[in-house]
Amino acid sequence: MRVGIVGGGQLARMLALAARPLGIDVTVLEPTPSPPAASVATVIAAPFDDPAGLAQLADTCDVITVELEAVPVASLQWLNQHRPVHPSPQFVAVTQDRLIEKEALRDAGIVTAPFGPDTPLPAVVKTRFGGYDGRGQQRATTIDELTAAINALPDPIVEGIVTFHRELSIIAAADAKGELRYWPVATNEHRHGILHMSTPRLDDPRQHEAEALARRIIETHHIVGVMCIELFDTDGGLVANEMAPRVHNSGHWTIDGSTTSQFEQHIRAICALPLGDSDLRQPCATINVIGAEPPLDELLAIDGVHVHRYEKPARPSRKLGHVTVTAPNDWLLNERVQRVVTVISPP
Amino acid sequence: MRVGIVGGGQLARMLALAARPLGIDVTVLEPTPSPPAASVATVIAAPFDDPAGLAQLADTCDVITVELEAVPVASLQWLNQHRPVHPSPQFVAVTQDRLIEKEALRDAGIVTAPFGPDTPLPAVVKTRFGGYDGRGQQRATTIDELTAAINALPDPIVEGIVTFHRELSIIAAADAKGELRYWPVATNEHRHGILHMSTPRLDDPRQHEAEALARRIIETHHIVGVMCIELFDTDGGLVANEMAPRVHNSGHWTIDGSTTSQFEQHIRAICALPLGDSDLRQPCATINVIGAEPPLDELLAIDGVHVHRYEKPARPSRKLGHVTVTAPNDWLLNERVQRVVTVISPP
Q1: A130, A239, B17, B256: which could join B306 in a potential S-S bond, CB 3.0 to 4.6 Å?
Q2: What is the largest CA-CA distance in chain A?
Q3: Best mutation target, A296, A325, A329, to test chain B (most B CBs within 10 A)
Q4: What whole-number distance in Å separates Cα of residue B228 and Cα of residue B91?
Q5: Residue A117: its pLDDT value, please?
């Protein structure tokens, strides 16, 4: 069995590392030289819309998936004529476009931030396509600022500001038979628009509500594999921010903190293997390594630390790895997390 | 940083899988085509005593280790002139020879089975060199049988029979500064002379005694890295059976059941990185897959199952993989283990 992945970044790397012990091979299609997945997967070095590259992926793999949503839908549609593609090209298309995505959420009965022409100010103007980690976004509090932002950004969408207590995310998995698994929701903290830390909690008060939202999306869009919904916890309940049709940064804790990681679960789901336990084995948290590599020996000197480097060249604002901290109790977890944060981002 | 491993079997494979997230590369020296480590490490395809292969290993790696003790000591000595080799060639030599090994244990004040010419009958005649998984052994209850066995086996050593309640093993790690870590001891069950199942236990009554024995060996032989002592639990205390200068089958549970696996710990130790927690996170047990591949979907349908395939061609009595079962309590663990055993060895 060989899984083909469009994209060879850190998510493909961790998918390949999870597939290996199951005896499942991985090939990635990736134009960038020496991508993070290169050391653990076969690489087809070609752009995502290269006919020869796509043909090679379809010829050599039994099932195809993606590690990012910014993939030409036409490529996925072509692949899907030859091999099963999970998630479906249609669902990937939905998540590529902030407008279509918000409409899809609303159509599934899920509350989103207000959007469109009638959005009250202050608001955020975003680009419909592309843009991640807070890039391609401008805040507007006056009509003039709004007009300027709309003119500055390609394909703008105006979104209302949501007042929330915290950001959280639910990661769920589904197989082709409709079997569903949900991990405990994680609370996410951002710094400069980039995910800094994710902390799952057992029996989070929003767990059942978040699961119901994920189920609606999975069932409406017939999703097979792992998906994520980022949510705002507000006085009026959960408000959906965005969806990812794939494994997600806020679920990296599952490698060390759950019986089945989101990566192994995705491989199981798309290979028609039974889904595994999506429990929380111990208190844990994941902290991202961004922009610069911290000293490995200082990280490993902290108890309960699991280091995951992506082997990417360092660059400002770039995710270079993550550290998951596990601990027998919340008090120790907090103490260890503080030490890890100090090593990663010295004061 | 690149680690060189003499041997490219499943232990090298799991060492490489543990090294990858730390950003550490692995090269293996292995004459067999397509060894288990091939999909996750660079392979130098050459015999263990091939001068060009050894030179390439020394040239390209920062530190050298072994995944088996049946390695020419001269090769390790040569490598050690160019790079640090852990464990030391001297200690590997000790574990290659059952006679020297028993003398080393006795010299460290550790009780072994009686051995040598005065061993009372019944006894077991073993070959001093090579032999594993019960191969190269004959039991003798009469003088005639003993004589026949001694004549039949090359380099025979006679060992007394030890009456024991159970077999167990201690796995320990040491770094170059003398820091030591011990995992909880595991109880081992064999079938047809091959390890069938290992079950670690928190607060095993023999834990402290086993740790003391491991410490004596580590300190006497200045071991850096992971090592294992197989022990018999007898009325008179622990009796040492044999030692392994490396990660060990009875420690595979540490991948899924401990904060730091024996594989990551060995990599940390030989790369002069701090050692990690050697705790038992949850009740767990490892069952070996021997001779034939069980149906993957049936295994994965059992909760708490972690499948580790070695991607070796199936052959009778060959270890093809292992399954570690984790569970929130001993009752559930036992129930899951029974189901796994039924799938692996149908009644």
Answers
A1: B256
A2: 58
A3: A296
A4: 13
A5: 84
- B176 in A contact zone (CB under 8 Å): no
Cα separation values, A299 from A285, A305, A344, Å: 14, 7, 8
Is A40 in Cβ contact with B300 (below 8 Å)?
no
**pLDDT score at B270:** 98
Q: What does the block give as tokens for A134? A: 């807070």
> Could you tell me if B305 lies within 8 Å of chain A, comparing CB atoms?
yes
Q: Please choose, from the candidates A292, A278, A282, A284, the residue with its C-alpha nearest in 3D space to the C-alpha of residue A321.
A: A292
Are B306 and A21 an interchain contact pair (Cβ–Cβ within 8 Å)? Answer: yes
Residue type, B63: V
In chain A, what residues touch B276 (CB-CB under 8 Å)? 300, 303, 305
Cβ pair B311:A23 closer than 8 A: yes
Kindly state whether A326 is in contact with chain B, defined as any CB-CB distance less than 8 angstroms.
Answer: yes
- Give burial (CB, 10 Å; 0-12/13-18/19+) of B94: buried
Farthest CA pair distance, chain B? 58
Closest CB from B297, B304, B321 relative to A273: B297
Confidence (pLDDT) at A115: 93
Give the pLDDT of residue B131: 66
Q: Give the list of residues 6+ apart from residue A59 with CB closer than 8 angstroms, or none.
A: none
In this prediction, residue A130 carries a pLDDT of 79
d(CA B284, CA A284): 20
- Cα–Cα distance for residue pair B194/B199, rounded to 1 Å: 15
pLDDT for A35 equals 98
Of B23, B300, B309, the CB nearest to A274: B300
Cα separation of the two ends of chain A: 48
Average per-residue pLDDT for chain A: 96
Number of A–B residue contacts, CB under 8 Å? 76
Q: What ipTM did this prediction achieve?
A: 0.95
- A232-240 mean pLDDT: 97
Q: Is B317 on the interface with A (CB under 8 A)?
A: no
Alpha-helical runs (H) found in chain A: 10-19, 51-60, 73-80, 89-96, 98-107, 143-152, 207-221, 254-257, 262-270, 296-300, 330-344
The residue of chain A with its CA nearest to that of B255 is A256
* Partner B, chain A 216-275, Cβ-Cβ below 8 Å: 259, 268, 272-274
* CA pair distance B242, B105, nearest whole angstrom: 9
Q: Which residues of chain B have pLDDT under 70?
A: 131-135, 347
| Residue of B259, B273, B326 to mutate, interface with A, max A Cβ within 10 Å | B259
CA distance B57 to B79: 8
| B17 vs A20, A23, A301: nearest CB | A20
Q: Does A314 touch chain B (CB under 8 A)?
A: no
Distance CA B101, CA B242 (A): 7
- Separation between Cα atoms, residue B325 and residue B300, nearest integer Å: 11
pLDDT, position B40: 97
Instruction: Over range A48-64, report the average pLDDT.
Output: 98
C-alpha A300/C-alpha A323 separation (Å) is 10
Q: What is the pLDDT, as a whole number, of residue A134?
A: 62
The owner of tokens 């189920």 is A215
Are A278 and A251 within 8 A, CB to CB? no
Nearest Cα residue in chain B from A255: B256
Residue B312 backbone dihedrals phi, psi, to 5 degrees: -110, 150
Q: Does A21 touch chain B (CB under 8 A)?
A: yes
Q: Quick check: B95 and B248 in contact, CB under 8 A?
A: no
